Each structure stands twice: as structure tokens, then as C-alpha cells.
Amino acid sequence: MSEQNSGMQRNLKTRHVSMIALGGSIGTGLFVASGATVAQAGPFGAIVAYLAIGVMVYFLMTSLGEMATYSPTSGSFSDYAGKYVDPALGFAMGWNYWFNWAITLAVDIVAVGLVAEFWFPDTPGWIFSAVALIFIFLINLFSVGAFGEAEFWLSMIKVVTIIAFLVVGLATIFGVIHSDVDVVKNLSVGNHGFVGGPQAILSVFVVAGFSFQGTELIGITAGEAQDPDKSVPKAINQVFWRILLFYILAIFVISALVYYQDPRLLSSSTENVAVSPFTIVFKNAGIAFAASLMNAVILTSIVSSANSGSYASTRMLYAMARKGEAPKLFAKVSKRGVPVAALILTTAIGLLAFIANTKGGAVAYTWLVNASGLTGFIAWVGIAISHYRFRRAYLAQGKQLSDLKYKAKWFPFGPIFALIISIGVIVGQDPASFTKLNWEKIGVTYLSVPLFVILFVGYKLRYKTKKIKLEDVDLTQNR
After folding, report:
1. How far apart are alpha carbons 189 and 228 in whole angstroms?
2. 20 to 30 Å CA-CA from 212: which of 27, 116, 178, 380?
3. What is the separation, in whole angstroms, between the first and last Cα of the chain?
């Protein structure tokens, strides 16, 4: 059954899809964590790490784009994994991704309260969290078009801020804005701009990977895009070049204007926006309200992430319900094409944010956050495997590549490269915990991996599924 026949509405315009894909890769990872990566690996070490992850994400997006334009569906890579690899993989991918974004929604709601305390230190943070959660629920309840429009403007704020930052930063570097900063010294620290060697670069891979999570949302939006054949490829191509422009140039500006051992870079966090590397650069350029400006932008980024999380998890739960992998209740949609029951359950998970404000609930909440920590990377692994199998099955069944609306670049190198890097990032979360056999740390860091394996193995044993033969892969198009 197509998305249209199920009551879903294809109301996401091309500009919505493009900005959702772009907004998914721009958030606190750039505005806050980028400073710590420069401190950790040096100017060019950080740039190399972000560039490598950016290229990997591009290959992932082209892989997802080929499948999404061939058969657009809100279930995205969960559906593709189930059709092209093994139904058990699709089941585990779907629940893994729903859990990831549902918990991310809760985390973001907590962060809203923390950031709002910058302006209102005497007001309880849970009040701002509650307002944000209600706002996000109503946007997603109204229609997919309302979600798209809200995400478009939230992402636009981020884009404008980055452009302003680059203009101010480059003007400072080239002396248009007076500054006493020694740019050459800052860029040549350590071993010609590299600090800590290969190990430091690898550790930044992890941070960069988290920064880029959310770009796979483009696969979810394909199921409700007006013209996925055009909007999805356009969004994918824009994401890669803008990631290069925004991340690489931003890190270059930060590295040039802030010494890598500046203690403010090491302490960057959403709880202390005054030391965001963006704030430091703006302040040094004489922009007095830099902290308030960046606080507003970071708040916008968090709300945008929560909004996207609500949409993504709701659609994934809806898609699984349609396949019989979740209760049928979640497959019902409103007259506006919104799976309301799925939205309500996802929002209920967001209420965990309030548990974090109680002493007794903090431990449980921390474990939930840790449990979702690697789920985004697991989704990336699934995308790479699914595309590799899709393309091989497509050729094995005698179909012509020229008939594809969009063809992923550099197959099979692209998905294989993305698979290797994604697994490397997962393993590289905390390798020291394995060498020291610190089981508590291993459990906290890698908890999402055994949860995924339990879902996969449990479904496989229950339904006795097997890897689908290439000639038996279902290549039916969902148009």
C-alpha cells in the first residue's frame, strides 16, 4: 500500500526537504562541540576528522537517496532493510530508530530548560521544557506541512547565524575587523596544525559523527514529499556542499581566531553558552550581545532537533505498525494525514524530561540516554548494508541502472566506506574500557548495541527469517 493510499499526505515541498536535511546536520555539534574538537586534535586535525565524516555522510545520503527515489516511504531504511536484506534487520532497525529519536526528544526537552536559564535563572527549567514539548506536539499534530514550514524557518535561523559568523570571522582574519590575534601561530600549533596524532583525530571522529546525525531524516521525508524524484536528490547534493562550507570553514575560523589551548574551548557546553566558540569569535569582534545571540540560536537548534525527533520517531512507528511490527493502533492517521497515536506515544516518551528534574529519576534517565547513544550510528550501518544489497539485487534481476531516477555515486565503494567508518565510530566510542575490562563503562557506552542484537535475534528466532536471496528481493516500487 502506498503512503498516499494510507491517508498520508505528500505536502513537503522541495525547500522543506532541503532545509530539513541541512538542519539535521547543523546543531549544537557545530555551535558548541566544535571548539572542543579543535582543542583535542588541533586546527587541521579537527578539519580532517570532520571532512572524513562529511564524505562518509555524503555516501550514506546518496545510498539512501537511490532507494528513497526508487521507493519513497516513511519507513525509509527500516523498510529497505526488511525488503532487501532480512525482515529481522528491518524490525530491529525500525525499533532502534524510533527509540533513538524518542529519547533524543526527551534529552532535547531537558536542554531547553537548561539553556533558558541563561535569561531566567530564577525560573524552574521544567516550565520552559513543558512549553517546548507542547509547542512541538501541536506543530506535529496539525499537519506534515506545518512541521515542514516550522523546520524550514528554524533551520534558516541556524544558516543565517553561520553565514554571519563566517563573514565576521573571515573579516577578522584578513584584517577588515581589527584584532590582535596571531592567526599564523594559532593555525600552526603542534605538528603543523595537528595535535595528539592519529588517536586524537579518531576521537574527534566520534564527535563529528554525532554532529552529523539527523541527515538521514531525508529518507523519512521522502514518504511525504510532493516530488521525491526531484526534492530528495537536490537535498542530498546540497547537504554535502553545505556541510563542507559550514563545518570546515567554521572550524577553520575558530582555529584561526582562538588558540587551541584556550580553556574556554574545553568547557563548551549547552549549559555554558558564554564559552561557545561562536560566542568567543563574536565577542572578540566587538559584538557585545554575542552570548545572548548564540544562546538564542542554540535554543533554536535544540527545538529544531526535538521537532525533527518527534516527526521521525512518529513516522517510523507508523511505518512499523503498517507492516505489523507494532500495534495496529499506531498505523491510524487523522484527516490531516498525521499518525496521532504514534505522536502521542512519542510525546509521552518526551515526558521523561521531567523525570530528569527529580533526584530519584536521574539515574534511570541517564541509562535511557546511554541506551540510545549509538542508535544513530547503527541506523547508518543499516543504510549502507541495505543499499549494497539493493543495488546487487537490482542488477541480479536484470534491471537497468539507467532506469533509476537517482544513482548513488561510486558504488560499491560508497556503501562499503560508509559501513567501515560507521562501525569504526561505534567501536571507537570508548576502546579504553575494553583494554581495562571496565564492564560498567562498557555497559554504559555500548548499551544500545546489545539492545539492537536482542531485537534482531529475537525476531529472527520467533519468525525463523533468513537473509533474502538476491533473486528473491522484493523490488516493488512504492510510488
Report:
1. 46
2. 116
3. 9
Which residue's entry shows cell 549549559?
A: 271
Q: What is the pLDDT of residues 202-226, one digit of tens each?
A: 878 878 888 888 888 888 888 888 8
The answer on pLDDT for 411 being more than 90 is: yes
b/e sequence 412-449, b meaning 16+ C-beta within 10 Å: eebbebbbebbeebbeebbeebeeeeeeeebebbbbbb
CA atoms within 13 A on the CB side of 406: 25
Rg (CA), the chain: 22
* Residue 305 grid cell: 532537533
196 DSSP 8-state letter: S
Peptide bond into 412 cis (omega under 30): yes
Let me know: does 404 contact 67? Beta carbons within 8 Å. Answer: no
Q: Which of 299, 404, 374 minimizes the C-alpha distance to 65?
A: 404
Report pLDDT digits (tens) over 264-307. 777 666 666 667 888 888 988 888 888 888 889 888 988 998 89
Which amino acid type is present at position 298? I
Whether 1 shows a pLDDT value over 50: the answer reads no
